[in-house]
Design brief:
This is Integral membrane protein. Keywords: Membrane, Transmembrane, Transmembrane helix. The chain is mainly α and about 150 residues long. It has one domain. About 75% of the residues lie in helices and about 0% in strands. The protein contains 6 helices and no strands. Helix 1 runs antiparallel to helix 3 (about 50-80). It is elongated.
Length: about 150
């Protein structure tokens, strides 16, 4: 069976999400001092956390983000190869990401702008649309004897 466009597009969009993530990590690393001051300072401008501890926490956070994006990149490759479980996990992660951004907006009033999370939400929505297509599902389930894929256009 030939790989449908929806599956390939979904994998490409996931790869773009990974690239956007690594660009974000690079931007965070280049703005290290500003992030440390914004996140780890108290209301009166004094340091709430010692500088070395704050730096360690930022390194741990950026490394965790990097590991996450490497995992998501591997997941994109598995989606491209046609693994159904990877397609389902990718759609679940995209849904969860959209819900988290919505809850941030709803509870904390964090605006959804290009600077904050608009690009990632847009990519997540497009990933959901691509991977939930009937052709993507049929391709991912092509080797499953329990699934009988019939196409009905009524």
């Amino acid at each position: 069976m030939k790989r449908p466009l929806a599956t390939g597009l979904g994998a490409v969009l996931m790869s773009l999400r990974v690239a956007w993530g690594f660009i974000s990590i690079l931007i965070y690393a280049l703005n290290w001092a500003a992030i440390r001051e914004e996140v780890f300072s108290s209301e009166n401008g004094l340091e709430a956390v010692p500088v070395d501890v704050a730096d360690l926490l930022i390194v741990i956070g950026l490394c965790a983000l990097g590991v996450w994006y490497v995992f998501y990149g591997v997941l994109a490759g598995l989606v491209f190869a046609g693994a159904n479980w990877a397609r389902i996990v990718a759609m679940s992660f995209a849904s969860l990401s959209i819900i988290v951004v919505f809850l941030d907006w709803w509870n904390a009033g964090i605006p959804v702008t290009f600077r904050t999370s608009l690009a990632s939400v847009a990519l997540d929505i497009l990933v959901l649309l691509a991977l939930s297509a009937q052709s993507a599902r049929g391709y991912a389930r092509r080797n499953d004897p329990r699934s009988i894929t019939t196409t009905s256009y009524t």
